[in-house]
Each structure stands twice: as C-alpha cells, then as structure tokens.
Amino acid sequence: MNEKSCSFHSKEELRDGQGERLSAGYSPSYDKDKSVLAFRGIPISELKNHGILQALTTEANEWERASVNVWSQASSEQPGQLISFSEALQHFQTVDLSPFKKRIQPTIRRTGLAALRHYLFGPPKLHQRLREERDLVLTIAQCGLDSQDPVHGRVLQTIYKKLTGSKFDCALHGDHWEDLGFQGANPATDLRGAGFLALLHLLYLVMDSKTLPMAQEIFRLSRHHIQQFPFCLMSVNITHIAIQALREECLSRECNRQQKVIPVVNSFYAATFLHLANVWRTQRKTISDSGFVLKELEVLAKKSPRRLLKTLELYLARVSKGQASLLGAQKCYGPEAPPFKDLTFTGESDLQSHSSEGVWLI
Predict the structure, then answer these.
(1) Around 314, how many Cα atoms within 13 Å sit in the side-chain half-sphere?
(2) What pTM was estimated for this model as a whole?
(3) What's the domain of life for this entry (predicted)?
(4) Residue 250 is inside which H or E element, if any?
C-alpha cells in the first residue's frame, strides 16, 4: 500500500495551516481483500508498525509544537478533578492567545470565477457579531498541547477517564494513549492540523451527558476485532473537517440561525463522527478503507451540514429514551442490523458525483 497516496492529510501545510490539498483516497492498486485480511486481529497499538496509522495523520513540515514536551509521570498522586468543557473553554477565553490568533485565516480566499460563484450561490456570510467567537475557535485550533499548563493535563486526564472508566490519573506519556487511538505514547504529536481544538471536541463528546453514550459506543466500535480503527486519530480528522467547514462558511447559516458558533461547531463535530461510525459499522469498513471514508465524509459534511445536525438531534433524542443504539443489540459482534431504521443517513451513492473532486485542508 502506498502510504503517500492514502494519507488523509497533505504532505505540506502552510504555517497558518491553511489552503493545502488533501490526498485522502487510497490507491486502487492494492488488493483490497488481502489488505483487509492482513490487518485482522492486529491490536491498535501495533498498527503503527504497519504504516496504517500514518494514513490518518498529518506530516506537517512547519507545525510549531510547543507541546511536544514528554510527560512521563502523572502530575499528582491523588486523582485529579475532571474538567468540564465550559471550564476548559473559559481558560482559553482568559489567556493571551494573540500569538496564535495572528496565524489564522478566518475564511477561504477565493479569486476570479470561484469568488463570483461563491458570492452569487454560496452560503451567507457569518454575522459580524459572531466573528469574534469564530476566530476564537480557529485560534484554539492553532494552539498545541502545553505540558506546563495544568488545564491541558486535566483535559487529557478527563478524556482518558471517561472513555476507559478509570477513576485514577494515568501517566501523561505512555502506551496507554495508543489504546485510546493516538499514534504514539505522546498525544501532543497527533494534534497537528487541529491543535487543541481536537482535544476540546473529545472533551465535549465525553463530558456532555447526551453525547457520552454515543462516544462510548463509537469507542467500543473502534476496538472491534475486525473493524478496529484509531479512535482519537479519527476524532482529530473529524475536528479537521469541522475547522474546514467553518472556514468555508458551510456552517454560517446555522450559526446565524442559532446566534452561536461554538455550540454549532461542537454539534457538527459530533454529528459527523456519528455518521462516520454508522457508515463504518453498517458498511463493514476496516482500517484499510479509512482514506476513502474520510474523504467522502468531508464532502458530505460540507454539502449537507444541516442534515447531519438533524440526524444527530433525532438520534440523541431516541438514545435518551432507550430507543436507539449505534452498535445494535449485539454490540459489534452479532448480525449487522441497522441501528435506527427511521433515521436517514446519506450513503456513498449520494456522493458519487463528487468522488473525483479534490478536498482542501486547513
């Protein structure tokens, strides 16, 4: 398998992390059946030795990683306190982010016919009063993981505890992070292209009582003996899609309607993750399909954000009543019955007209 051809992220990124071309699809030259068989039964922690995890991460040349300090010990012998999404967000609202804000480009630059077409037929512009909130989201995406910031450590610990059920702190550097679906022992090295926003999205997913059951089910799906995938790396890629959709103004209509940006981006992230998990489970995807799945997911998410958000809303309402389960009654191991027959998910056939189009990363 050609790693370069199946990498979800581009091989070069600008310093502000914007405007680069995605080469997400896998090369059709490999033998799919043999590829799938080759990865059955391989633990997530071992996939990196086969070059598979590299297909889901960015090889950014100029990513400034102030956060690559190695943490070998947990910060305290006593279990730390969980941190909520709102508390973590408030931290970023109060610290000086001006060096990171200088890097952002809030919207995609268009010229010529592309600019004219966007002006005539594109989505509405974001309301002026919402642009500061949008810029905060994009600025957080420029921030790395800081080993000296206790809030950053608490975010990581909270994600780990909520996904694993552990009541104790873990070392902030170690193989246990690979079990959660990071590429290596240091989560900081996997945030390129999405920054700390990727961790905030995971925090939102596990700390919101409505989305926690969904997060736990997707995490269980990611550990399936055949359909396994790196949960956290997949989440980082979905955050990447959310950032791009925001910059391309795909979410502006919904943000204007709700008069909010951060809740819309959070819900869009969760809705996109839900759709990916449904496609992954019902269409029996494996790690070798990840490039195609992510590419098609980005096209769909930017084309029909409102549809994804509505599906999430209906799904969460049914989960709260005990009427829906992403994995079905068999929890991954039995017959693959559709988890919610009344909900409509856009399938691959709806994307055929876009299959040859390029996708742009931040």
Answers:
(1) 14
(2) 0.72
(3) Eukaryota
(4) none
Q: What is the pLDDT of residues 271-310, one digit of tens each?
A: 999 999 999 999 999 999 999 999 999 999 999 999 999 9
* Interatomic CA distance for residues 308 and 215, integer angstroms: 16
- What is the tally of structural domains in the chain? 1
Q: What's residue 2's pLDDT?
A: 44
Judge contact between 288 and 26, C-beta under 8 A.
Answer: yes
CA gap 312, 228 in Å, rounded: 23
At a CB cut-off of 8 Å and minimum separation 6, what does 134 contact?
A: 106, 126, 246, 255, 261
CA angle, 228 as apex, 235 and 172 as ends, to 5°?
55
Distance of CA 205 to the CA centre of its chain: 11
Domain around 228: 47-57+78-321
pLDDT, one tens digit per residue, over 68-87 is 333 434 444 456 789 999 99
CA atoms of 133 and 135, how far apart (whole Å): 5
**3-class secondary structure, 193:** coil
Least confident of 65-69, 232-236, 269-273, 289-293: 65-69
